[in-house]
Design goal:
The complex is a heterodimer of chains A (174) and B (514). Chain A is elongated, with a radius of gyration of 18 Å. In chain A, helix 2 packs antiparallel against helix 3 and helix 3 crosses helix 4. Chain A has 9 helices and 1 strand. The longest helix of chain A is centred in the last third of the chain and has 21 residues. Chain A is an all-alpha fold and 174 residues long. Chain B is α+β, with helices and mostly antiparallel strands. Helix content of chain B is 25%, strand content 35%. Chain B is built from 8 helices and 29 strands. In chain B, strands 2, 6, 7, 8, 9, 12, 13 and 22 form an 8-stranded antiparallel β-sheet that branches. The longest helix of chain B has 42 residues. In chain B, 21% of the residues are buried. The chains are: A mainly alpha (174), B alpha+beta (514). At the A-B interface, helix 2, helix 3, strand 1, helix 6 and helix 8 of A face strand 1, helix 1, helix 2 and strand 9 of B. Strand 1 of chain A pairs parallel with strand 1 of chain B.
Chain lengths: 174, 514
């Protein structure tokens, strides 16, 4: 964690008005993160606002565990998204560039790939989808993915590659 | 399984839309509105709590005397869950500076920390090179736990347990003031001060303020003895006997080796009494001697003499002014050997047997002494507990325990003084410590006090204005058994400036318990 960010967190703990620099640093990232998992922009705005509200409430208890402040926010965001979709079908938006990255990883190039991939992704367990998008789309290191999803790093690595293998196998079969 | 709707290439958020949503003032208003609401709810809860306590106090009091009026003093409840060292004393962590490429094996008291090479990455997952600082601190007893402020309770299925600890440590890593992350597991072999196989390993989740179970803790035991004591016990008498036995054994006749070069000498039996009675003694030449050469046989020597030097027989060959010295040993061949052996056994056999008997007796005594010394110098059992550390933070070897039982008291916490009307104490932290139990029982200042009257106990507390309060074991012992009604716990308030761990320890009445 950058020293500047550390100082800012300490200031925010004392006076919540000093949370603003942290908010400005992470707002766009968290909003886009939420929007990728929401059907509408308004839902994303609401959830993003909830994420920061919760962060402001809990900042007093925030402890620097060595991870970036961002990974703490992403964790809150994932929980909020999960709460939001408690009774509804969850949404995951997949960017074309993500498909390109994934096709390279899968060593598959095919015009029908988006359709086929969509089909295969829908059959995966949520944790696998989250791992794939955090790793191959958002390009996060496994250490941070593990922190966000509250699993061990080894587990994050193993499950991500297991997910890729599953998709590969299914794509080859179909 | 959760259902997902995968949308490929859907709508996108523009930068303008992101910017429009980025209004911190609006968010702050919402937050402040929430805080006000929460304070109101908390106020309501405190009021309800005070009401409940009042009802409880009345109930307990009614057990004592039916129509007696009791003055109820309110108790302020303070909930503080963060890890804040008591009195803000920074934990005295030991800093180790290591080369991250090479790794290191570090020692801290009885603990070994094994760091593999290239064990760290930065926040982006890049390998860390160069020097990394490892900060390490251990906590082994209720005093350590108290001063650290680390929560020692464990919630399991909604039930709160108290941790009995077999040792806890805090490990962190930094490079140039920035935290580093563990990429390859660090192995911490924790030197534990508690025996027992009933502990589990836990990791403290600082975000959730709770302990996460890792695995069962299998302690490793090693018996420690002061080996120096054993080495120091030696018997000179045995050494003398061994020397004598060795001297006698050297006299044992040797058989001539097949094909060896030998010389037959005429000897003066006064000069070499050990050979008296033996005939046909040969002196076998040691062909490994540097001075030996087959050419020696071609020389016509002026004289050949035998001497014994440092227990070794030497043959001295003289030719004019030249002297050649060669190691040799007396040997016998054929019947002469059997005869020589028989004479040797007759003359020395009994002596050897007697020396061996004495030696054996002496050895028995020495062994017995050494064993006893070993037992008396036994330093106890050395226990280690092994942790695979994948994240920096706090680790603990613990066993969840329930609160001690025996006596349940409705209490009021007051400041000890000479005044008739004592001041009520507002406590933010309250702990119970029992003799010979490695547990820091965390109490709620608003709850009844449950403890075992058969054990010595001490109460430690921290007031809302950060003062240490202690209720000593001697005071505890005065509480009547089966007391009905409210019992006034009159704490000694430590007014001294508590600026260091040692400073606090002196005030905690530890001597009464451990």
């Amino acid at each position: 964690m950058r020293i500047e960010e550390k100082k800012q967190i300490e200031l925010a703990k004392k006076n919540i008005k000093d949370f603003e620099p942290l908010y400005l640093a992470y707002h766009e990232k968290i909003l886009r993160f939420c929007f990728q998992r929401m059907e509408s922009k308004n839902e994303a705005y609401d959830v993003c606002s909830q994420v920061f509200m919760k962060a402001m409430k809990a900042i007093g208890k925030y402890q620097d565990k060595g991870f970036s402040f961002g990974s703490w926010l992403y964790r809150i965001a994932l929980n909020e998204i999960s709460t939001h979709y408690k009774k509804k079908t969850k949404v995951i938006k997949v960017d074309e560039s993500f498909l390109f990255t994934l096709s390279e990883e899968l060593e598959e190039k095919d015009e029908e790939l988006p359709k086929r991939l969509k089909r295969e992704l829908e059959t995966l367990k949520p944790i696998y989808i989250q791992l794939i998008e955090l790793r191959f789309w958002e390009g996060r290191p496994f250490k941070e993915i593990a922190e966000i999803l509250n699993i061990s790093e080894v587990n994050a690595k193993a499950k991500t590659y297991r997910a890729i293998e599953k998709i590969k196998t299914k794509l080859i079969k179909n | 399984m959760d259902e997902y709707n995968i949308i490929i290439g859907g709508d996108k958020l523009t930068n303008e839309e992101v910017k429009r949503n980025e209004d911190f003032g609006q968010l702050l208003k919402k937050h402040q509105h929430f805080v006000k609401k929460r304070k109101w709810i908390a106020g309501g809860l405190i009021a309800a709590g005070v009401f409940l306590i009042t009802a409880l106090v009345l109930y307990f009091n009614s057990l004592k005397k039916e129509n007696e009026e009791v003055e109820i003093k309110s108790i302020e409840l303070i909930d503080e869950k963060e890890i804040t060292p008591v009195f803000g004393i920074e934990l005295d962590r030991k800093e180790f500076v290591i080369n991250s490429e090479k790794g290191a094996v570090l020692s801290y008291d009885n603990t070994v920390i094994e760091i593999p090479e290239q064990a760290f990455v930065d926040s982006l997952g890049n390998k860390i090179t160069g020097e990394v600082s490892i900060f390490y601190k251990e906590f082994h007893n209720p005093v350590d736990f108290f001063i650290s402020g680390i929560p020692m309770t464990y919630d399991s299925a909604g039930t709160e347990y108290q941790f009995e600890s077999a040792g806890m440590f805090d490990i962190r890593g930094e490079q140039n003031g920035e935290p580093v992350f563990i990429d390859k597991s660090i192995r911490v072999v924790l030197g534990s001060q508690q025996e027992g196989d009933y502990f589990n390993k836990y990791y403290y989740d600082e975000e959730k303020d709770s302990w996460d179970f890792i695995a069962k803790d299998d302690a490793v035991y090693e018996t420690l003895a002061d080996t120096n004591t054993v080495i120091e016990i030696d018997d000179k008498e045995i050494q003398l006997i061994d020397k004598e036995i060795a001297t006698i054994k050297k006299l044992k006749p040797s058989k001539k080796s097949a094909g060896s070069a030998c010389i037959k000498l005429e000897m003066d039996s006064n000069e070499f009494p050990q050979f008296r009675g033996f005939k046909d003694i040969l002196f076998e030449i040691d062909v490994t001697d540097n001075n030996f050469s087959e050419d020696l046989a071609q020389v016509e020597w002026d004289d050949i003499k035998l001497r014994k030097k440092d227990g070794i027989f030497e043959l001295l060959f003289f030719k004019k002014f030249k002297k050649t010295t060669i190691r040799t040993k007396p040997v016998f061949k054929g019947e002469t050997f059997n005869k020589a052996l028989s004479i040797y056994n007759t003359e020395n056999g009994r002596k050897l047997d007697s020396l061996n008997d004495v030696r054996e007796n002496l050895m028995g005594s020495v062994n017995q002494f050494n064993n006893e010394a070993s037992v008396s110098s036994n330093l106890g059992v050395f226990v280690t507990r092994i942790f695979e550390v994948n994240n920096f933070g706090i680790y603990n070897s613990d066993c969840p325990r329930r609160m001690p039982k025996g006596q349940l008291l409705a209490t009021e916490y007051l400041k000890k003084s000479d005044q008739v009307e004592k001041d009520t104490l507002k406590l933010k932290k309250l702990y119970l410590v029992e003799e010979n139990k490695n547990i820091l029982y965390t109490l709620s200042p608003s709850s009844t006090l449950s403890y075992n009257p058969n054990n010595k106990c001490v109460l430690w507390g921290v007031t809302i204005d950060n003062k240490l309060v202690v209720y000593k074991a001697t005071e505890f012992a005065k509480i009547p058994l089966n007391h009905k009604g409210i019992y006034n716990i009159e704490f000694e308030v430590i007014e001294k400036d508590l600026y260091a761990e040692e400073n606090i320890k002196k005030e905690l009445d530890i001597g009464a318990l451990f």
